[in-house]
Amino acid sequence: MAAGRSWRNISNVVRKEWLNALRTPNSVLFMTLFPILITVQVLFVIWLVVSIAGPEALSTTIFHEGVQKLARITPAVTSLSPIDRFKLFFYSLMPLYILLIPAMVANGLATFSIIEEKQTGTLEPLLATPVKTWELLIAKALYGAIPAVLVTWICAVLFLAGVAIIGPVSLLHLVVSLEFVLSLILVVPLVTLLSFLVGVIGSSRARDAKGAQNLAILIVLPLFGIVAIQLLGILVFKPIMIILLSVAILLIDILVLRLAVRLFHRESIITKWK
Q1: What global pTM score does this model have?
Q2: I want to staple 71 with a disulfide (CB 3.0 to 4.6 A). Which of 77, 135, 213, 270 is the partner?
């Protein structure tokens, strides 16, 4: 009975949040146009670099070490032409780079949702309802996480379509690696949750959405750092590393969740957010 009541409370809040978001053009564009632009940007940059530079020039760049490490991990790479090796190397960065999509979308949706309710005074009446604080947090997490994860997966499909267009199609079976799948299934949802929780913490202290989103840099910068590590050939992420990264993010999620619940305490919200 209690579980059913909690689920109804959560689903009602999620439904309310989605209806409000669909009425706001900025939210819809943010959930759709922004992720697509990131995906198209990656494909365009890869095409541009490979087309203009060529294999000889790329062999003298900082990317050469990364290609060599990828070849040692994936023997099939050695049978590819030099230009296709570089293409595959750049494509292999996407499972990590694509994490920017759920990071920004989830953080943005959480921030806009909470800040808007904070500014319009609609959050306090919601807290006066039987909805418990943890139910409200889970509802808002689902509101931001579900579209963020779905959009990221859609962008992954668009990316693979772009890979097929840029060619050669024979690279697809190497691009859809175990690392790629693990990143989408494990890391994307965990990064999404972390981004939402950071958005909650930022929104609990900030006066506007811009101020709240400043905390997103705590997630975006490490993601760029991870991409740079692989781009420079310092480290190539194997499946076990993706799993360890997922475990680390999960532990961080738990710690940040405890902090978010504390900062989202009902009495604190009602007395300090006015």
Answers
A1: 0.81
A2: 77
